[in-house]
Design brief:
The complex is a heterodimer of chains A (333) and B (335). Chain A is mainly beta and 333 residues long. Chain A has one domain: 6 Propeller (Neuraminidase). Chain A is 4% helix and 42% strand. Chain A is globular, with a radius of gyration of 19 Å. Chain A starts with a helix and ends with a strand. Chain B is mainly beta. Chain B has one domain: Neuraminidase (6 Propeller), CATH 2.120.10. In chain B, the strands form six sheets. Chain B has a four-stranded antiparallel sheet, with no helix packed on it. In chain B, strands 2-3-4-5 form a four-stranded antiparallel sheet, with no helix packed on it. The longest helix of chain B has 13 residues. Chain B is globular and about 50 Å long. The chains are: A mainly beta (333), B mainly beta (335). Chains A and B meet through loops of A and strand 9 of B.
């Protein structure tokens, strides 16, 4: 632990000194049809054609009464837009696995992966928008009253998730799930969905997490996990061995890694406060912050609890916000 | 005897009512426009707790039907469109108000969210944060209220703006405060807190709010059965205690502003309440009462628990009622 302390001090100074990156927010970046609204944006992602996918909490799940147990359904929707931001279609309307949007990501083969924090499922749609793989299972009925959090967050060595938050892949197609807010672990599966291993539990030491809200994998297969509750990003090798931590990033809630290996990290403000945090950092993979932009707020170019960053282009980002019920398209200068 | 006392206390708590103590107020004659709002076949209003007009005279009704919904009508009462169908911030309506730029603001006490819609129905700003569904079904929290947060509401009730665009929100059923934000939604100040109280500057269910042209903030302090006037920095100036329950109020725009106060009859139509409640008062901003109008009744032009008034034109009052699922337009002779 001792050897980390000088590094922490050095990196903290870097965050404060990082230059401001000039940027603009493109007005009307997404054009929704009349009568359709985004809710809290869990995820935003683009595919190789620049098409945009938004997974959003449009309402709350409905609980049916007058049944043997209380069953819940609905609450989130997945929308697709073309590269110009024009609405194209809804994907997975009324699907069993959509209740509380956590994230959407698109893999190198243009499969669309949805992570749902309440059905505890990771759903893979192929490029034709058909369901092609499922991880996790929705609980059959909903707990009334709400269950108190239990356990140490290590979870089971399976694909049973507890509030998963994000998904990423390495070059070999192995799948990494950030699991997440109920559990505090990372689960690794092979490309066919077979469980390989998981690591982490709740805590603040190396390899432990307050929560895992976002995840990215670099070209070498190293895994970057946003551990915002401990105000850091932890870095692991492909098998989960702890390598280092970036402690200069605040409440890391959303990560995105570009093809050119530039890492964006959002120091997201909490949903009930816009008077602190909110900026996004641009970083090198050694933890150096090379620039920062934005702040918490409600206006364009301000952020309300960023939960997702899409960074297919290094200087054209989409950010999804929980607090402002919107997606902004940002152009960095 | 003890049981009797308890029963009375219980009944008063549920069906709070108060006879206005002001006397000798003259009646203002009016006529109600018959069949004012015309809905398409198959559409219904639910509890019409919130009504407002914009500068063109369009009427917005934010009502509790199966889902809470926001409807827009033209000035003649013809249905134009629905705004925000399926929107995340709609669960249980409480107030709708239109600002000077014709933006439409909804206050939802189910989602704890206040939303600013552009005149054509796009979301421009949201205040407050909906409790996350992912934690499951929550029972109403027992015990004292949690400390009030800058950007989180607890069943908020109403919204208003001063001439500079600062935003004021009455919050609400489980906080007991008025909150001020700047025009960009940044917290500036609050009066009251999560705790209910009776002294001036404290509130017990602030249920309605308006801001006058001087920037003073008028609050309907419902469970305290009064109206309270605050200055622009939320310092209390005075209270009005002789106009009944303090449910809702309205201040007309223009160079000569009037205030309207509703002594709404209580929900449930308890025996006897129709004789002593239900009237609306018209007053000058200095407190001089000019007259009163209206009585409880099931059929128009009677009132069934007036929850909100629009007074953009002080000679054409539009009232939204809880128990009749109805919006009425009342026309007065110009004065």
């Amino acid at each position: 632990m001792k050897y980390l302390i000088p590094a922490i001090l050095a990196l903290t100074a870097t965050a404060q000194d990082a230059p401001e990156i000039k940027f603009d927010s493109v007005p009307n970046a997404l054009q929704l049809p009349a009568g359709l609204y985004l809710g809290e944006v869990g995820g935003v992602a683009t595919n190789s054609r620049g098409e945009i996918f938004v997974y959003t909490r449009t309402g709350h799940p409905t609980i049916t009464i007058g049944s043997a147990r209380p069953f819940a359904h609905g609450g989130s929707r997945l929308f697709e837009f073309d590269a110009n931001g024009k609405y194209v279609r809804e994907i997975g309307k009324d699907t069993y696995g959509f209740m509380y949007a956590a994230q959407v990501r698109v893999d190198p083969a243009d499969n669309i992966w949805v992570v749902d924090e309440m059905t505890n499922m990771v759903i893979k749609f192929d490029a034709q928008r058909r369901v092609s793989m499922l991880l996790g299972r929705k609980e059959e009925s909903v707990r009334v009253p709400a269950r108190a959090p239990t356990g140490n967050g290590a979870g089971q060595p399976t694909d049973l998730f507890d509030r998963p938050a994000d998904v990423a892949w390495d070059a070999a197609g192995n799948i990494f799930v950030a699991d997440g807010l109920g559990n505090a672990r990372i689960a690794k599966f092979d490309k066919d969905g077979k469980f390989v291993k998981s690591w982490g539990k709740r805590g603040s030491g190396p390899g432990e997490f307050a929560n895992v809200r976002s995840i990215a994998v670099d070209a070498q297969g190293n895994v970057y996990a946003a551990d915002g509750g401990n105000r850091r990003v932890q870095v692991f090798d492909n098998n989960g061995e702890f390598k280092t931590a970036f402690t200069n990033v605040g409440n890391a809630q959303a990560l995105c890694l570009t093809k050119g290996q530039v890492l964006y990290v959002s120091n997201s403000n909490p949903p009930d406060d816009i008077d602190r945090d909110g900026e996004i950092y641009k970083m090198k993979l050694d933890g150096t912050i090379t620039g920062k932009f934005g702040r918490a707020g409600k206006l364009p170019k301000e952020f309300g609890t960023v939960n997702a960053i899409a960074c297919r282009g290094e200087n054209t980002l989409y950010v999804g916000e929980v607090g402002n019920l919107r997606v902004q398209k940002l152009v960095l200068h | 005897m003890k049981r009797m006392t308890l029963w009375v206390a219980f009944a008063c708590g549920l069906f709070a009512q108060r006879k206005a103590t002001i006397d000798n107020v003259r009646e203002l004659p009016f006529s109600a426009v018959p069949n004012f709002l015309k809905l398409p076949p198959g559409e219904y209003l639910g509890e019409s707790v919130a009504v407002a007009t914009n500068s063109k005279g369009h009427i917005f009704v934010y009502h509790r039907s199966a889902n809470t919904r926001l409807f827009e009508f033209d000035q003649a009462g013809n249905f134009l469109k629905e705004i925000g169908s399926g929107y995340y911030g709609f669960e249980f309506s409480h107030s709708v108000r239109v600002d000077k730029d014709d933006n439409i603001w909804t206050v939802d006490e189910g989602t704890n969210m206040v939303t600013k819609f552009s005149p054509d129905g796009k979301v421009l700003m949201v205040l407050g944060h909906r409790p996350p569904a992912v934690i499951g079904v929550q029972l109403a929290p027992p015990g004292p209220n949690l400390p009030a947060q800058k950007y989180t509401f607890c069943r908020p009730t109403d919204v208003g703006w001063d001439p500079r665009g600062n935003i004021f929100i009455s919050d609400g059923y489980c906080n007991n405060r008025v909150v001020k934000y700047d025009k960009d939604g940044r917290f500036l100040a609050q009066a009251g807190s999560e705790k209910a109280g009776k002294t001036l500057g404290e509130f017990n269910l602030p249920h309605g709010l308006q801001v006058d042209a001087q920037g003073n903030v008028w609050v309907a302090d419902r469970t305290n059965s009064r109206y309270v006037v605050l200055d622009n920095n939320l310092k209390p100036l005075r209270e009005i205690t002789n106009l009944g329950v303090g449910w809702t109020m309205c201040i007309s725009p223009g160079p000569h502003q009037y205030a309207f106060f509703s002594n709404s009859n209580p929900n449930g139509n308890m025996p006897g309440t129709w004789d002593t409640t239900g009237e609306i008062y018209k007053a000058e901003l200095d407190g001089t009462v000019l007259g009163k109008f209206g009585h409880p009744a099931k059929m128009p032009p009677g009132f069934q628990v007036v929850h909100m008034m629009d007074c953009r034109n002080p000679n054409e009052i539009i009232v939204g009622e809880i128990e009749s699922w109805r919006v009425q337009k009342l026309v007065f002779k110009a004065q």
